[in-house]
Amino acid sequence: MLSIGHPCAELNPSRGLWFRAVLSVYAAHINVDDPLSGLMVGQLDPPAAPSGWVSVDVRAASLNHHDLWSLRGVGLPADRLPMILGCDAAGVDADGNEVVVHSVVTDDAWRGDETLDPRRSILSERHAGTFAERVWVPRRNLVPKPAALSFAEAACLPTAWLTAYRMLFTRAAVVPGSTLLVQGAGGGVATALIALARAAGLRVWATSRSEEKRERALSLGADAVFAPGSRLPERVDVVAETVGAATWDHSLKSLKPGGTIVISGATSGGDPPAGLNRVFFLQLSVIGSTMGTRDELDRLVQLCVERDVRPVIESTVPMEDARAAFEALAGGDVFGKLVLTR
Ligand SMILES: NC(=O)c1ccc[n+]([C@@H]2O[C@H](COP(=O)([O-])OP(=O)(O)OC[C@H]3O[C@@H](n4cnc5c(N)ncnc54)[C@H](OP(=O)(O)O)[C@@H]3O)[C@@H](O)[C@H]2O)c1
Questions:
Q1: Does 69 sit in the ligand 1 pocket, CB within 6 Å?
Q2: Which end of the chain is less packed: N or C, by CB atoms within 10 Å?
Q3: Residue 236: exposure state from Cβ atoms within 10 A (0-12, 13-18, ≥19)
Q4: pLDDT below 70 — which residues of the chain?
């Protein structure tokens, strides 16, 4: 076999340019009711990357609820299997630079806000994801990783934390001194919302189903915590939603006239009761938000360094032990992020 310069590329006389099998965490089949039955950990030939893409040696990659949705077939049709999972990574590029990987891949011709490209995807939907020794991405998707952030911390930023950043600062345009309610405090996005809103000078309230997670939310910087559905001491300016059906009614009822719900997910179900009368009579705004741009990721990285904000990491496990991390995520007994390392 003839090496052609790239540490993982070889010229195979019968197959042309190909990439050696790499340790991967991947979806082998889809199962809506038992998503972990389709999860595999083992050697896999990654598909050849589009020309011009660059490789990153993955040092850390974090799990997101998105990985469970993928195993259920949401955004991942069976004809794309096997698919390496994972949206987030931090690692080292072929030139030796420490980088954070922006997960949103746009059409080559797209210009402007990447999240608005109707043909966009995020890693592991159309292109191989980050739960592998190596991932390939367009060069523009690399953001410098400051030395102040560990690989594990940096690997939490590109999906959950970037989504929280855009929800707060771009979409809801929160202002210091206002009050934010975060539903479902324990999640990856929710813990990021609490930490970022605190750093930005908001009063932060949070709900969680778990007493222990409510306590941890207070330690993270929430000013007050409540059981789901509780009557609040007063109405809030903004509610940040990722839970969906289970909390939607409470979110609407918790808002001041003129208030805003910013929503990026619906873990408990996507068809909440609408509450339309309340929306128009109180002149509420319901704003959707998805992922974030490369520039927003760059600013988020700087914010974490400058304001000494760090992702909450529940645990870090070797990539070989990914199944245990997936079981914990699916069990819902997690506060913050789960990280795979190499
Ligand atoms: N649009 C986007 O770009 C984008 C980006 C990132 C995430 N998301 C979506 O946002 C959601 C959260 O993602 P994540 O990665 O943060 O998930 P995660 O870490 O698994 O967190 C799960 C969250 O769901 C809450 N929860 C689950 N079931 C619930 C129920 N029945 N009642 C109340 N709360 C419930 C948990 O709150 P407690 O346990 O504290 O009660 C926790 O906040 C997912 O649906 C994900 O797909 C969307």
A1: yes
A2: N
A3: buried
A4: 1-20
